[in-house]
Amino acid sequence: MASFFRDARLPQQRVVEGVPFPAVLVPSAPAGAGGLDEFLAAVRSERASRLEPLVRDAGALLLRGFPATTAADFDRAVDAFGYEELPYVGGAAPRTNVVGRVFTANESPPDQKIPFHHEMAQVPTFPSKLFFFCEVEPKSGGETPIVLSHYVYKRMKEKFPEFVEKLEKDGLIYTRVLGEGDDPSSPIGRGWQSTFLTKDKAVAEERAAKLGMKLEWTDDGVKTIMGPISAVKWDESRGRKIWFNSMVAAYTGWKDARNDPVKAVTFGDGSPLPANIIAACGQVLEEECVAVPWRHGDILLIDNWAVLHSRRSFEPPRRILASLCK
Questions:
Q1: Which pLDDT tens digit goes with each residue over 85-124?
Q2: Does residue 118 form part of some domain?
Q3: Domain hosting residue 170, numbered range
Q4: pTM (2 decimals)?
């Protein structure tokens, strides 16, 4: 039977270790042939044979030119993949639920870049897959650059073997000060009530403890201390080490009225991270990344075990939606 999907190449793609990154699929039939239901049926029928092997090999898959155009369509498309939803507990970004299992992506101001990170790498329960959807194309900029984690690990290990050795031995501690309510002007502006999905401090304590997080209450908020938590993980399914942390993001981007980024992340023994190595790691991430400009209707599926992502600044309008899966 002919496939509903056809491989495509984009100028921004890179070939990493012989595999195009990200994988890109477009409709095999001319545009407009078949509606949303046909697309969803094709996702269900070709998921195991075609789509998942691509995600496994490439780490990320872009679906372009399919008839999903609204948040509700995207919700149905995520559902068609059949992954279980992961509630957003413990994440830092301010987000709003749009429909079903779909949320806005980080709502921080357009002039701010969001540095590279694995989704929720600073907590023990993180999504294994995440979906992004372009509901409104940016006027300019606003790409979501992606980079292969095992490759970043490899480059860092070559450049800074002692640093990486200490990182693997000690892990990292992440510290973040949260207000009560959300602060949409900050990229890490989620207040404690929406972080722990409660207004009750005792329930927040309980949920934090489940994440292995310590809370220290202040007059107008709370300090959260997470770790030591591993900064390099072993990807069992692919048999390789990955750079699974939010070190560069925390050190360079966890900055607002309450938070000083230099204190936001330290080695697991409490000693400070070297600024020059953080800067060099930021450079490696930029050098190795791929940034595909968003088009309306794009669906990007990221394997959170393989790929870090970020966000470039943009000129509005831009509306990217997200969905997290266990």
A1: 998 776 777 788 999 999 999 888 999 999 999 999 988 8
A2: no
A3: 149-285
A4: 0.94
